Amino acid sequence: MNKTKVFHELHHGDGPLVLPNAWDFGSAAVLAAEGFPAIGTTSLGVAVAAGLPDGAGVTGEATLALARLLARLPVPVTVDIEGGFSESPTAVGEYTARLAELGIAGVNLEDGRTETALAEPDHQSELIAAIKTRTPELFVNARVDTHWLKLDTDATLARAEQYTAAGADGIFVPGLTDPDEIGRLVAAIPLPVNILYSPTGPSLATLTDLGVRRVSTGSLLYRTALAAAVEAARAARDDTPLPRQPPTYARIQALT
């Protein structure tokens, strides 16, 4: 199976690709076994699992190490590479080429640089173009962080259009939950639009009607797993019933 080709095709099915985001081999393998047709990674989960901060550009090696493991999965995998782990277009292109050589199908490249700053769109476009020049088959999901960081939200469409022109394969706008704005973005952008799932945001049915082609879970699964671990530990300490039945040891062992 050509996983990269399959991953592209998953953005053009009857409904949105619901993409769960894993943080290690176990979480990715159990999600693949559950029937999800593709798996993404969450940069927060990967970073914290390695004892590193998210969004600081310091998890390049940890991300690459995880990608080597996830490439064994029977489904396509897309990897969150934050801002590319470098400001050099050549370096970013080479890094993503290493991912593609492992069998990774796509990357998520964000234009947020800190909690208070966005990359210059011209430079971000150079990074996107460098990836597509080096590995044209790789699915580049260009993340626009204007709503996520609440910075210059009026520039969302302009950035999306510029990244489209640079060769991106999809546009991701996390933090955008207003149905009218989502609809306008989908209508204006010829690429598949990715929205971050929000428990308080539009339903999957609404996002489908709006034309959204991909719905990601981001760090939600990782944060939920941490909460479940704390709940189980409290149950053991307080001698109370477990809040949920976990998978058996044998089931998890069988994933490796």
TrEMBL record:
GO molecular function: lyase activity
Superkingdom of the source species: Bacteria
InterPro entries membership: ICL/PEPM (IPR039556)
Keywords on record: Lyase
PANTHER family named among the record's database cross-references: CARBOXYPHOSPHONOENOLPYRUVATE PHOSPHONOMUTASE-LIKE PROTEIN (AFU_ORTHOLOGUE AFUA_5G07230), PHOSPHOENOLPYRUVATE CARBOXYLASE
Protein's recorded name: Isocitrate lyase/phosphoenolpyruvate mutase family protein
Organism: Nocardia iowensis
